[in-house]
Structure formats: C-alpha cells, structure tokens
Queue: 3 jobs
Job 1
Amino acid sequence: MNNIMELRYQVECQHDVAVVRCSGRMVRGTPLDEFRRGIERLEHLRVLIVDLSDIEQLDAGGLGILLLVRRWARMNCVQMKLVNPNPLVLRLLQATRLTTVFEISSLEEALCILQTPGGRPHYAVA
C-alpha cells in the first residue's frame, strides 16, 4: 500500500472545539480504525469539525466510520460538522443521501457560526 495516500489527520483543539484536518484516503483499513479511536479519545468537546478538503478517496468503510463518529458525537452531546468536502466526496455524500444526515459547510462558515460578536464560541444550529 502506498503510505503517501494513507489517511492522515491532525487535531487542533481550542477550548471545547476540535478541528480535525484529514488528508489522503478514507478507506477501510487500520488507519481508518485509528482515526475513529483518536476522535473517540477526545474529551470535553462541544463541537467537532471534520475538514474533508484533502480527502482523495472515500469508500463505504470511510462513510461507515463517519457515521460511527457521528453516533459517538451524538451520544456525548457533541455537535459534529463536516466541512470542505471536495466535489468527489460531496457527490458521494449526496448519492448516499448522507447530506441529510450530516451538517456540511465550508470551514469559514462553520467557524463564523461558532463565534459570537464577543469572540466566544457558542452552539451552532444543527
């Protein structure tokens, strides 16, 4: 397997908001399982933003993990938002009708929604 294409992710937390920047292939396999476990280890979150802009491939395993992370988020009262899916990923989400399940926007929109005029994050409307 080409390690360059493997799923990579970086988590940035500020207060109770985590932004997870993903790149590579979100396909069935060990990296995808590690991604899910990494997300589930996050604590004291109110908002989870998953940036999909650099995802080059997404399969049924990747969609399944996104649904498992969504379930974890709901069970832990964490609002989850998918941001910046590239056209290929967005078409796949639309074809599987998961655009009705996930809140999807640009990263800029997500961050603006989460900010009040005073600069403190607040709940976004799901």
Job 2
Amino acid sequence: MARGIVGTLQLLGTVVLAAPLALLGVQFLLSGRELTGALFVVLAAAMIALEEYLTTPQDVPAKAAERAVGSVVDDDDPDR
C-alpha cells in the first residue's frame, strides 16, 4: 500500500514512541524478567500494528474520496 507524506510521518511518530518500550522490554528479557519484558515488547508491537491497520474517523473521508476518484478516473487513458 502506498503511503503519503502524512502517513509516513504518523508511522514515524508511532515508531519513535514504541521504540523505547521495545528496548525496555528487551532489557527486561535479558535481565531475567521474562513476563514484564514480553509485555513491553508486545505493547510496542501492538502500538505499531494499531497505527497501521486501525481505521480512524479521520481516515473514512479520505478512503471514500480515493474510491470515488478511482471509479471516475480511468488509468488506461491512451492520450497519456
């Protein structure tokens, strides 16, 4: 799926927030606290997955517009 500049920046912001949690989880795992470490790693992965796959109310108009433009505009135009 192609991602625009705004989508890329949103993903970057999520990764910036999730990376310290993942690193803390790895540190806990290496120190022997498996449950806490696994919890932090799963939480960081869930943050990124939710940002990637969750549809928010702000996404609905954009997806509807993409669908409408895709049905109106013909990509197989021979003049181009």
Job 3
Amino acid sequence: MMRGYLKVRDACPVCGEALHHQRADDGPAYLTILIVGHILAPVLLFVYSTWRPEPLLLAVGLSLGTVALSLYLLPRLKGGMVALQWAKRMHGFGSTRNV
C-alpha cells in the first residue's frame, strides 16, 4: 500500500483499489505521540528511580528511544488509518451516500 516511507500509492498493486483519495492527515502523528508517550513515561520513571543515571545520559537515551519508536510506528499507524478508512468506507472508499 505504501510507495515510500509515508507516501500512499495511488492504487493498490494487487486489487486495483483507488487509494489516492485517502485522508490520514494528523491522525497517525497524534497516535504515534500518544503511544510513544505512554510507553516511555513508565520507562523514564523506572530507570530514574532504579538507577539514578546522569541527566544527560538519561536525556540522550530516552531521546534515541523516542525517535526510534516514533520512526517505527508512524508508517504502520498511517497504514492502519488508511485501512480503517477503507473498512468504514470513508473519504471516497465506496459509496458515502445514505439512502
């Protein structure tokens, strides 16, 4: 479904479903921030209360973890948002008229 890191193809290469009208907008970014924050906040608390590392070491370690986890989750969550739109027939996927 994806052509690049975050670019969605114009159409599915297998079934031909048009994907050019999908609108994920800020949803994947918001979910990424939400998930990363909920994962790393307890990690920060545990690491600080258990080992009391130097502040610079703690900041560098958690910054690297935040960036790595964000880069991993963002394209997967964007694909999930497009799939949810497809399943709910939103934003041009299928008929949107209520009869």
